[in-house]
Every structure is written in C-alpha cells, then in structure tokens.
Amino acid sequence: MPVLSYQLYSSRNFSGLEQTCDMLARAGYEAVEPYGALLAQPDTLARAVEENDLRVPSAHVNLAELEADPDRFIALAARLGIRTYYAPYVMPDQRPTDGAGWREFGARLDRAGAPLREAGLGFGWHNHDFEFVPTADGVVPMEAILQGGPDLEWEADIAWIIRGGADPYDWIARHADRITAAHVKDIAPAGEKTDEDGWADPGTGVLDWPALYAALGRTKAGILVMEHDNPSDDARFARAGVALNAGLEA
C-alpha cells in the first residue's frame, strides 16, 4: 500500500515547520515531502520530522544545486531517510523550445541523477502543465524528457497533467513503469475557488479520484503526496487529503 505523504510546500504560508509537522502527524499522515528551501535547513527539518514520528521517503531538489553538489544530497538522504529525489521545475526562460532541446534536458536530468543512483537512491522529474503543451515542431516535452532520460523516474502530478490539456489515464497507462510517486490534488469547478488559484481540496473538486487511484494502483507509485498550491487553510486541506485517502483505501 502506498505511503501517504504531504508536500510541505502546501503549508509554506502558514505556521512554522515544527507546528506544521505536528498538525500533519495529528491528522494521520505517515510522511512528508520537503522542497528545496527546507533542504537548506537540515537541522530544523530533521528535528521537526523526528519529533513527530514522520518519514521523509521523497523530496524535491533544485536541479542546479544537485548538479553542483550531489554529495550534499546523498548525505542528507542518509540523515533523513530519503529514498528518492525529484526535480520539480524549470523556469520559463530556461525551457527548451523544440523536441531536441527537451530530449537533451531529459539527458541532463539523467546525468544529474547518476550519482544518486550510484548511492542507491532514486531520481526523477515532477511535472507541471507546460510539459504537455507541444512545441512548434510537434513534440510533447514530457515524452521527450522521458526519452532523453531513460533512467528517470516520474512523480506524476495528476492535476497538472489535466491542466496541461492531456489525458491522465493515457499517460499513467503508457508510463506505469516510470511512475514511482504521484501528487494528489484537485481542481475546483470553473469559476470557483479563485482565491485558491482554482485548486480544491482532494475529493472536493472535479477529478475522479476513485478511478485515478485505480489507475495509479497499476503503476510503481509507492508514495501518494497530497498537495494544494495555495490553500486558504492548510489544516482543512490536510484533513481532506487524509479523508480522501482513507475512503479510497477502505
């Protein structure tokens, strides 16, 4: 059964890390997924998760920082119990503009992950929506990334796939062997939740999570990470994520 985790980026605008981890443990989470800024505070992060008996099976890592000092992240993985890192984003001005460029970007990711794999860790890519918008030469960047980086894992963010105009079931089925984690977030009905950038708590939006969970169950996803990019109440969102997961596992 996949580990229930929580992307700590969801709570960046709320109480401190230790208070957030306490809230998540009380809500019923097993694990958390830190992002780059928190990896720069290893002592604080380690204390917060240890005091609340939380695991850290995955983390988001800045690609340039990983390339510059892979040993730092290997040591951090040993300290926190991280098994897999995912690079989560590339800025618009750094994005390739054609298929060849995206394939080379995939190869760059593969090279960056080589030291992690040699240390027994996993490494992959976490998508947003732009990877599903074809380039001028008709290439879908996500396909090119996976082609260019044959050893890459994929943390599939389902809601972003949909916002990119793609069919999540098709992508899940075709790349089931590459998907080792998934982000669970929901999209609000059109015109709703504008104060939360159109996102909804898991299970309260338009996504068919029973069907999506069934599809993800046919992948290698060992971690399901609850995420909301801009919740007005992170504790409310956290509780909704636990409730959705419990209901679908029952």
Shape: globular
CATH superfamily assignment? Divalent-metal-dependent TIM barrel enzymes
For the biggest sheet, the summary is:
7 strands, parallel
Beta-strand content: 5-15%
Distance between the termini: 12 Å
Number of domains: 1
Number of DSSP E strands: 9
Q: Average pLDDT across residues?
A: 97
Instruction: Please name the CATH architecture.
Output: Alpha-Beta Barrel
Helix/strand-derived class? alpha/beta
| CATH secondary-structure class | Alpha Beta
- CATH domain fold name: TIM Barrel
Summarize this structure briefly.
The chain has 250 residues and is of the alpha/beta class.
What does this protein look like?
It comes from Paracoccus litorisediminis. InterPro entries: IolE/XylAMocC-like, Xyl_isomerase-like_sf, Xyl_isomerase-like_TIM-brl. This is TIM barrel protein. The chain has 250 residues and is an alpha/beta fold. The protein has a single domain, classed as Divalent-metal-dependent TIM barrel enzymes (TIM Barrel), CATH 3.20.20. It is 43% helix and 14% strand. It contains eleven helices and nine strands. A seven-stranded parallel sheet has the order 1-9-6-5-4-3-2. Strands 7-8 form a two-stranded antiparallel sheet. The mean pLDDT is 97.
Write the layout of secondary structure elements.
Layout: E1 3-6, H1 17-27, H2 36-39, H3 42-51, E2 58-60, H4 63-68, H5 70-80, E3 84-87, H6 99-118, E4 122-126, H7 141-148, E5 153-157, H8 158-163, H9 168-174, E6 179-184, E7 186-187, E8 199-200, H10 209-216, E9 223-226, H11 234-249
Parallel strand pairs: 1-9, 2-3, 3-4, 4-5, 5-6, 6-9
Antiparallel strand pairs: 7-8
Helix pairs in contact: 1-3, 6-7
